[in-house]
Amino acid sequence: MLAMFVGMLSLAACSTAPPDGVSVVSPFDVGRYEGKWYEIARLDHRFERGLTSVSATYVAQPDGSVKVINRGWSEQDQAWRESVGKALFTGSEDTGSLKVSFFWPFYGGYHVIALDQRRYQWSMVAGPDRDYLWILSRNPTLPDEIRNPLVAKARSLGFPVDDLIWVDQSRALP
């Protein structure tokens, strides 16, 4: 199971700051962000390579940290892979900039760079550089009228959106 996010070690060794020129969402409410998010698209990394039906569940903890549970289906193993981590705010808790660790004491940046501020139904997250990007949704699918502007924004910020992997969510569990 731990192998699912072994690549997080390399991410964790990186900066926890957002990529240059990329703004982080504020205001941000972790209480509204809590819960399950489906991975709609991602840039490829070995720690998720070959996984489908990927989701992330966030649970705020009493100490101010956030428990992160990543889960995905491995066709190769014919099994679910799961990794549990811990996220901490890098500054103010009303700004969507956190650092996450799946291998303590190493942390990597997790930056919410776009968010449905009204309903918290979709999000776009960057890592510490433009090699890490995820589009997330509360549902296993995301309508084109939401997806296309997110991709356009990512492109305008210099992310390699032509390399996005559109995640098959056919095994997604509620």
Describe this structure in words.
The chain has about 170 residues and is mainly β. It has helices spanning about 10, 30-35, 145-155; strands spanning about 35-40, 50-60, 65-75, 80-90, 95-105, 105-115, 120-125, 135, 165. The protein contains three helices and nine strands, in the order H-H-E-E-E-E-E-E-E-E-H-E. Residues about 1-15 have low confidence and may be disordered.
Percent of residues in beta strands: 35-45%
Classify the helix fraction into a percent range. Answer: 10-25%
Shape descriptor reads globular
Output the helix-strand order: HHEEEEEEEEHE
Strand order of the largest sheet: 1-2-3-4-5-6-7-8
The number of strands is 9
Give the N-terminus to C-terminus distance in angstroms. 21 Å
Q: What is the count of helical runs?
A: 3
What is the radius of gyration computed over CA atoms, rounded to a whole number of angstroms?
15 Å
